[in-house]
Specification:
Serine Threonine Protein Phosphatase 5, Tetratricopeptide repeat; mainly alpha; 2 domains; about 625 residues
């Protein structure tokens, strides 16, 4: 064996043919790669073979320790040979990914990436890629300050090497992290700088369009997280037009640049995912604006696209999109009184979450909040309280934390738990919720008005309602507007100001029917029935009583049907991981028919255009939708 290279090459070629065959024969692929190592090849071949073997084992086997061993071998061997920089940095990147994905070992993953960053200054592409990867790990660990510091480092590095495209990606990523921190002042500074740089950018039309899509997505997300449903409309239209232009352009996918330069090598998100993204933000907007039919239409289209893409690409980002779409659909079904579909979708959501403990931890608060909202709709107030308290115990977002407390406040108000409400008051007063959020401030004013109404403090209730209606009308928060108007009509009826009741209830009913929001319609018809009875309008009373009874019968039929479902028992499930397999068979069938599965995080940083895996998701906030 004087010249062993042909043997190695033959085994490597055979391994690759087994890996890419249809279906892949991973067992024989692994045996061929192990055969190469058994031949004691030179270090350069040994390093590359360990990298290949570790990657295959990570992706296709249940032996994470062996995968980690081969990746560590590749890293160790390549650090001794300057000509193996590509193996060195790819092995450490894959090793860090394996440590997190299979073993949850964030500390060692970060340690390896930090060591690699010290060695990668002269390899521009790898230095940027490792910065993005490490920043993503910090985001996943909620260490946003460290993530911001790394992204700043990336901006400085790219400015020095004159890579404006990647510098913009680092800066936009920093803006995204600042949004997660709800740091409005710094976000405004960063986004203004991004806007100027994108305008001046002279790269390809496609890369400029992708940067603009990233920029507009952050702006739209920020406005929606603040409940600025009306103000966001022009930006949402720009984003929709931008993504439509990008997806209709001729595909000139970004390719890896072997020279090690970074110009236009990274992208934030694949084009196919952008199509789903624009549906997702449109769904968020429709739900906040009280356009339930539109939200459901967009959701079904997006889920259909996800189902198609999942057969080709089991990306964690697609699962993140799927989870957020399901969360919004569930709220739509609760609003329209379809509790049967709502609890089935919640069970589907839970099934996906429990496939991965990290995924469950990420979505735990949203899942229990949805169970709380369902429990409220089913008039199971004790269960609602337990679910909201469970959701609060795992919530890390200040906006969503306020949203959960506001719904808990509604339960306390409706069940006349005055002491518990007063203990909660410091968290749900309009002046104590996040000041940048129109929707939370309007909702807080409404919840306080509701509590004052149940305490017969009508003057205070009216003052809170005036504040709620002013904020809701400013930003087209139609559900809050209709709730506020009906409650104000109820107060006027108690005060015997009959003439003013109709002025409140009629526009509220028009909005409720347009949404459609069945519970507000039920409340409004009961109010009109009582008003006509007081006024002696017996024909009007009979008409509203008939409408009220029809709505009641429909809701009760759905209510009793939901009670009979095995999924209904979820209202008493408080997150024990050992529970929740009781309907896994049926849920799996529904899940396979509708969408896919996988993992989620909080934010997606850019990735290399053709080969890097995305290990994150877009900004995640359940809408403040009381």
């Amino acid at each position: 064996m004087a010249n062993p290279d042909p043997l190695y090459l033959g085994l490597l070629g055979t391994a690759e043919s087994f890996r890419t065959s249809t279906p892949p024969n991973i067992k024989l692929c692994i045996q061929c790669l192990q055969g190469v190592l058994n031949c004691k090849p030179p270090p350069r071949i040994e390093a590359r073979t360990n990298l290949q073997l570790g990657t295959v084992l990570m992706n296709f086997s249940d032996n994470p320790d062996l995968a980690r061993h081969h990746l560590e071998q590749a890293w160790s061997i390549s650090t001794r040979d300057p000509s193996l920089d590509d193996v060195k940095f790819e092995s450490v990147s894959t090793l860090a990914e394996a440590m997190v994905k299979q073993q949850g070992d964030f500390a060692n993953a970060c340690s390896y990436l930090n060591r690699a960053l010290q060695m990668s200054q002269d390899s521009h592409y790898w230095h940027c890629r490792l910065l993005f990867q490490l920043a993503q790990l910090y985001i996943n660990q909620k260490d946003l300050a460290s993530a911001c510091h790394l992204l700043d480092t990336g901006c400085t590095f790219c400015h020095r090497i004159q890579s404006s495209h990647t510098e913009l990606l680092f800066l936009l990523s920093k803006g995204m992290v600042l949004l997660l921190q709800h740091n409005s002042q710094d976000t405004s500074v960063v986004m203004s700088a991004c806007g100027r740089m994108i305008t001046a950018y002279n790269g390809s039309a496609e890369s400029k369009g992708m940067l603009k899509a990233f920029f507009l997505t952050l702006q739209v997300t920020h406005y929606l997280s603040c409940g600025m449903t009306k103000s966001v409309k022009p930006l949402l239209r720009q984003l929709q037009d931008c993504i439509q232009t990008l997806t209709t352009q001729e595909d000139t996918s970004l390719l890896f640049n072997p020279t090690g330069q970074t110009n236009e090598v990274f992208e934030w998100m694949p084009k196919e995912h952008l199509c789903i993204l624009v549906y997702l933000v449109s769904v968020y907007h429709a739900v906040q604006a009280g356009q339930i039919d539109k939200a459901q239409t967009y959701s079904e289209k997006a889920l259909t696209q996800i189902q198609g893409l999942k057969s080709l690409d089991d990306s964690p980002l697609l699962t993140s999109f799927q989870m957020m779409l399901l969360e919004n659909i569930i709220m739509c079904h609760i609003s329209t009184g379809d509790k049967v579909t709502a609890i089935r979708k919640i069970a589907q959501l839970k099934f996906i979450c429990l496939q991965d403990s990290r995924l469950y931890q990420c979505h735990r608060s949203q899942l229990h909040t949805l169970l709380g909202l369902y429990s409220m709709a089913m008039n199971s107030m004790e269960n609602a309280i337990s679910q909201f308290q469970t959701a609060l115990s795992s919530c890390t977002d200040s906006h969503f934390w306020s949203f959960i407390n506001l719904n808990l406040g509604i339960v306390y108000a409706r069940t006349n738990r005055h002491n518990e409400f007063m203990q909660l008051l410091e968290h749900i007063h309009p002046h104590r919720v996040p000041p940048e959020s129109y929707s939370l401030k309007a909702a807080a004013a409404y919840v306080n008005a509701l509590q004052r109404f149940f305490q017969s403090q009508y003057t205070d209730a009216k003052l809170f309602l005036q504040e709620a209606l002013k904020l809701a009308n400013t930003e087209d928060l139609h559900k809050l507007t209709s709730c506020g108007l009906v409650l104000l009509g109820q107060i006027f009826l108690h005060l015997s100001r009959s003439n003013e009741v109709l002025d409140m209830v009629n526009p509220a009913m028009q909005l409720a029917q347009k949404i459609p929001e069945v519970n507000i319609q039920l409340w409004g018809t009961a109010l009109l029935r009582d008003l006509y009875r007081v006024c002696g309008n017996f024909a009007g009373e009979a008409q509203e009583a008939h409408i009220h009874q029809t709505l009641t019968n429909s809701l009760l039929a759905n209510h009793y049907q939901a009670l009979e479902l095995p999924e209904h028992s979820l209202i008493s499930w408080l997150g024990e991981m050992s529970q929740g397999v009781e309907f896994s068979s049926g849920i799996h069938q529904a899940h396979a028919h509708q969408n896919g599965a996988a993992t989620s995080s909080t934010a997606a940083l850019p990735m290399q255009g053709t080969s890097a895996q995305n290990n994150g998701a877009v900004l995640h906030n359940l809408n403040s939708y009381l």
